[in-house]
Write a structure and sequence with these properties.
- The chain has five helices and 16 strands.
- The protein is an alpha+beta fold.
- The protein has a single domain, classed as Alpha-Beta Complex (Creatine Amidinohydrolase), CATH 3.90.230.10.
- A hairpin with a 6-residue loop joins strand 11 and strand 12.
């Protein structure tokens, strides 16, 4: 792995990129409601990105297997769709949907990336529990990230939270480092595996992490639809996804992609 530790100057640039992401997701959260198309959400995100003089990270990215470039500024994934859902005029939000919005932006050469899952209208109790649990996994990571902490320690706590709620953590997709590129080292699983234990990551000040728990109501297995992008659960049960870009700081961490930037000091030091 080639993990880059960012300077205080770079951290400020990352804060600015993160602020763009936070502002866009905040607006989309307000706007998403029954009757709105996912294409309209994408239009709003694109407009706000231009106004910020930033660049949407996802738009134009070529997918695996030579898939056509991703057409949207945001990923909009509904219910059994896990990630990489394509915005469309044909997709109209309806009451009870679980909508994941994933958005990334590059500003002056530095990147921010975040995601949120929203309940549209009146959501079932099970759907609300899934959303709340997945958000809690991200909060657990934020509470425990600090220099000297092993990532397996954080991942174990995240995985245990999902299992205790009766849900499963997706194993095919993981978090990642981020900085001047959208995807950088290290890879950050939301679960503990033999590979992670063999090649554990010790967090250091200056690391920038895109932590993104993905949790399924049913089994963890997923598949990709024929469009080459949209990932869905194999059992067609709902999924939820949250993400923040987080800087490891001297005493803990700083969340770079939320409106009220918070710093967390960890009491754990494994």
């Amino acid at each position: 792995m080639a993990i880059t530790l960012r300077s205080s100057r770079e951290l400020q640039m990352l804060r600015m990129a993160g602020a763009v992401v936070a502002k866009v997701l905040s607006k989309l959260t307000e706007y998403a409601r029954p009757g709105v198309t996912t294409a309209r959400l994408d239009e709003l995100a694109s407009e706000m990105t231009r106004q910020a003089e930033a660049v949407a990270l996802f738009k134009g990215v070529t997918g695996p297997y030579g898939t056509r470039p991703f057409p949207g500024a945001i990923c909009t994934s509904i219910n059994e769709q896990l990630v990489h859902g394509i915005p469309s005029e044909k997709v109209v939000l309806k009451d009870g949907d679980l909508l994941s919005i994933d958005f990334g932006a590059r500003l002056d050469g530095y990147c921010g990336d975040a995601a949120v899952t929203l309940g549209i209208g009146q959501v079932s109790a099970a759907g609300r529990k899934l959303i709340d649990t997945t958000r809690r996994l991200l909060d657990i990571a934020i509470e425990n990230i600090a220099p000297g902490v092993k990532w397996s320690f954080v991942a174990a706590k995240m995985e245990a939270c999902a299992k205790q709620a009766g849900f499963s953590v997706v194993r095919d997709y993981v978090g990642h480092g981020i900085g001047t590129e959208m995807h950088e080292d290290p890879k950050l699983p939301n679960f503990v595996s033999e590979d992670l234990l063999r090649n554990d990551i010790v967090l250091r000040e200056g690391m920038i992490l895109a932590v993104e728990p993905m949790v399924n109501m049913g089994r963890s297995a997923v598949r990709t639809l024929p469009d080459g992008w949209t990932v869905v659960t194999r059992d067609a049960r709902p999924s939820a996804h949250f993400e923040h870009t987080i800087a490891v700081t001297k005493d803990g961490c700083e969340v770079l992609t939320e409106n009220s930037t918070r710093s967390q000091k960890s009491e754990n030091s494994e």
